[in-house]
Amino acid sequence: MLDRIPLECFRVFDAACRHMNFSRAGRELQITQAAVSHRIRGLEDHLGARLFERAGKNLRLTPQGERLFQRVRSSLDYLEESLEPFHTGGEQPITIAASGSVSHLWLGPRLRTFIDANPGAAIRLITSDSPVDLASENNDLVILYTTGEHPRWHLSPLMMEELAPVAAPGYVAAAGIDPQTVDLALLRSLDLIDYDRFNANWISFRQWFSRVAPNDPPSRVRPRFTFSNYGMAIDAALRGDGVALGSLGLLERHLAAGSLLRLGGASLATGYGYYLGLPRFRTASATATRLHLSLLAAQGAAASPEDDGPSPDAPVQ
After folding, report:
1. Which residues face 153 on adjacent strands?
2. Are 123 and 105 spatial neighbours (Cβ–Cβ below 8 Å)?
3. Is 219 exposed, middle or buried (0-12, 13-18, 19+ CB in 10 A)?
4. What are phi and psi of 105, to 5 degrees?
5. Does residue 201 register a pLDDT over 90?
6. How far is Cα 85 from Cα 118, in angstroms, rounded to an integer?
7. Per-residue pLDDT for 30 more than 80?
8. pLDDT tens digits, residue range 155-191?
9. Element (H, E) at 74
10. Phi-psi region at 66: left, alpha or beta (left = phi > 0; alpha = psi -120 to 50)
């Protein structure tokens, strides 16, 4: 049906709905009141429904007209927002992609710091746990969970992954435990908080226990809470609901502030890490380059020298 309706009719309909007056709608669009009426009648004929009713000298929308107006207004708002960078003449937003856990726990505060120091910059953050979305070449910068190489992105290390159990001070106090002396047997008896593994390379409590205590059957690991994503699991730990498996680099801010405590001395270095990527086959903008250097500096990292060539077989998450 849409291919038979002139798109201008929807613009005229939107103006008529906002003004509830055909004459004022015509003045906004610089057409006559008769032209507005003609386009509205044409739209009604195409749809087979009345969109307006007369109430004396006033107009009001029919139920069908009200529903259509909501959808047309939303569509026009979306289109206007999409066109904003073209008619402002300003710099395009920098698109950076990161997983939900990185965005929630590490990246957000650092983007705020960068924007404060670069008031003219604009950033678009894509949060996804899909490897395809994260590594898309439509992004200007990426943060990937990998072993360090990617065919389309030049990667610089931000932090290597080390996993250890963590809990809020309130939970530790209520459980009556000394966080420094928690062993694996005691840990299993606590309220474990886990998350669903979106990717086979991620580590949850069952895999963690099987690696730090390979002689114990994994069936003995029974989390009390399981959340759909890692960020929610950490939020539950911060509320004092139990013990989560903490990625120590991502949680550095909470550990330094004391809002989370590490339990015991057991930890697991997975061999994976979080890497900040610049595109290999196109030049990054000046603002994207500044953000890249800012994020590396915030983590005390340095840009890696160019390697001899990417490994197409490196696993990426």
Report:
1. 279
2. no
3. exposed
4. -100, -25
5. no
6. 18
7. yes
8. 999 999 999 999 999 999 999 999 999 999 999 999 9
9. helix 63-88
10. alpha
Torsion of CA 228, 229, 232, 234, to 10 degrees: 130
- Please report the domains of the chain, with CATH numbers, ordered by start residue: 2-88 (1.10.10.10), 94-159+272-298 (3.40.190.10), 161-270 (3.40.190.290)
Give whole-number Cα distances, 268 to 8, 215, 238, in Å. 62, 16, 21
Residue whose tokens read 């690696």: 211
From CA 180, how far away is CA 183, in angstroms rounded?
Answer: 9
Q: Report the alpha-carbon distance of residue 39 to residue 275 in Å, rounded.
A: 55
Q: Assign 44 to helix, strand or coil.
A: helix
- Cα 131 from Cα 159, distance rounded (Å): 19
Q: For tokens 């908080």, what's the residue?
A: 193
Residue position matching structure tokens 């080390």: 162
> Residues 242-272: pLDDT tens digits?
999 999 999 999 999 999 999 999 999 999 9
What angle do the packed helices 33-47 and 22-29 form, to 10 degrees? 110
